[in-house]
Design brief:
The structure is a homodimer of 245-residue chains. The first copy, chain A, is an alpha+beta fold. The first copy, chain A, is built from eight helices and nine strands. In chain A, the strands form two sheets. The first copy, chain A, has a six-stranded antiparallel sheet with strand order 3-4-5-8-7-6. A two-stranded antiparallel ribbon of chain A has the order 1-2. In chain A, α1 packs across α3. The longest helix of chain A has 14 residues. At the A-B interface, α3, β6, β7 and β9 of A face β6, β7 and β9 of B. Chain B binds a DNA duplex (19 and 19 nucleotides) through α3 and β2. Chains A, B: Keywords: DNA-binding, Transcription, Transcription regulation. Chains A, B: GO terms for molecular function: DNA binding; DNA-binding transcription factor activity. Chains A, B: InterPro entries: Bact_HTH_transcr_reg, Chorismate_lyase_/UTRA_dom_sf, Tscrpt_reg_HTH_GntR, UTRA, WH-like_DNA-bd_sf, WH_DNA-bd_sf. Chains A, B: This is GntR family transcriptional regulator.
Chain lengths: 245, 245
DNA sequence: CAGTGGTCTAGACCACAGT
DNA sequence: CTGTGGTCTAGACCACTGA
């Protein structure tokens, strides 16, 4: 055993088990070691072990039930709730090639939906980024991001066609801490249709997103529209429903 | 204060705090009582209190940070990761009136997508339920559910226009334990359009769902199509998820 | 029945917030 | 600094699983 990271023990246990599952050390339907075995192996008490198992459960990797050890539910976290990882990382995990074609990066006054989402006044400036995102070279999504001015101004030094904007911002001290997504469907506008190479009026899966940084401040509002033939969102929720309520 | 249910203490704490938040006892941005205050109030140790707070965090109701008490993030328990609530319950929580108009309940051989999702042979029988779901009397969603035969046959004794199918099945020993959702967009078919009272070709938000019972067996496959003007899905996901202790 | 996970307690130490 | 939440331990009891 190496690794005496600064990671909390429960995170270390979760990370190790997650790797084993992704590496297919266990088959689907197979049981993980018992909790007490994991306690022994990692030299921790039951608390951190159970916290790690809860994490993997929330990721859709395992299923928990009383009286018997955890069971592997899926090998890849990609198809599960981690769909809400940034586009570039998501594509990489799925073995696809992600690309970007930037249409514009503009500093202007906030649009009305952005004002509401970012809690800004009509006179406040924001930075709008309009990009077409490509999967294996094919247009798969059109992304309209709006950043608050202090964050958006960082983007003028960044080649929005290369690399991950998420990683770039993280390097500048802006971390995505939590996101809220609203999913619905819209008909493709003329602009959408032209940039995605589809017919106007085609159904698109829309994700409207507000992102908060580590201090809980909203700094991004985005309207992403996906071609449903190419991208779908997958969500797993493993949870026993409470009788009451 | 009533309820000394057989609910676990952490569930009781979570339920009570959830009600207070929905009831707007705390404003958005306001702090909840400290953990030790909650321990005193509910007469429990920190473990259950922290587990309850983790639940509310996963539901997107509160935000946690180190060194200061939990902060209210939202008043609405919308469709979050942990609470992908059945239609009827979701409507009730949001103060809407849910209704159903059953088009057909039929026992027949499984369609191809259902065969795949339910892991059945082409010769196996299933029970299909086609319903229009109403919100405040207006058609909001068209639901095509397919149940494995053993579960579906229970439904012939059930008035699918009244009450909650989820509750009914739970009463017969079939519990929804985990679900997987795939979200995308489709153009309304002629059948969709007619039943929802919209134009054919209109964009609809589609949710394809496979549900497992408490033994991990898939027993339902559903294709639900929502009118995006009336219903959208809201999902909150935060960086670190950490129940337990 | 023995073993397992689900829950809970009563302590403890650390990192961080606000004063 | 004090108080807060984040983490951890070492016990314990109960409900369920499976031989």
């Amino acid at each position: 055993m190496a690794s005496s990271d600064s990671l909390p023990r429960h995170a270390h246990v979760a990370s190790e088990l997650r790797q084993r599952i992704i590496r297919r050390d266990y088959l689907i339907g197979e049981s993980l070691p018992t909790e007490s075995a994991l306690c022994t192996e990692f030299g921790v008490s039951r608390g951190p072990v159970r916290q790690a198992l809860a994490t993997l459960k929330n990721e859709g990797l395992i299923r928990l039930s009383q009286g018997k050890p955890a069971v592997v539910r899926s090998h890849d976290a990609t198809q599960t709730l981690d769909t809400f990882t940034p586009f570039t990382q998501w594509a990489q995990r799925n073995g696809r090639t992600a690309g970007s074609r930037t249409v514009e990066v503009a500093r202007r006054r906030a649009s009305e939906p952005a004002q509401v989402a970012l809690d800004l006044a009509a006179t406040d400036f924001v930075v709008d980024v309009l990009r077409v995102r490509l999967l294996d070279g094919e247009p798969a999504m059109i992304e309209r991001s709006t950043f608050i001015d202090s964050v958006g101004s960082l983007l003028f030094d960044f080649d929005t066609d290369s690399g991950s904007m998420t990683d770039y911002l993280a390097g500048r001290g802006v971390y995505f801490d939590s996101m809220e997504h609203i999913l619905d469907a819209v008909a493709a506008s003329d602009v959408d249709a032209e940039n995605l190479g589809i017919a106007a009026g085609s159904p698109l899966l829309r994700e409207r997103r507000t992102s908060r940084d580590q201090n809980g401040r909203v700094f991004e509002y985005a309207d992403d529209r996906y071609r449903p033939e190419l991208v779908a969102f997958s969500i797993v929720n493993a949870k026993t429903i409470d009788p009451r309520m």
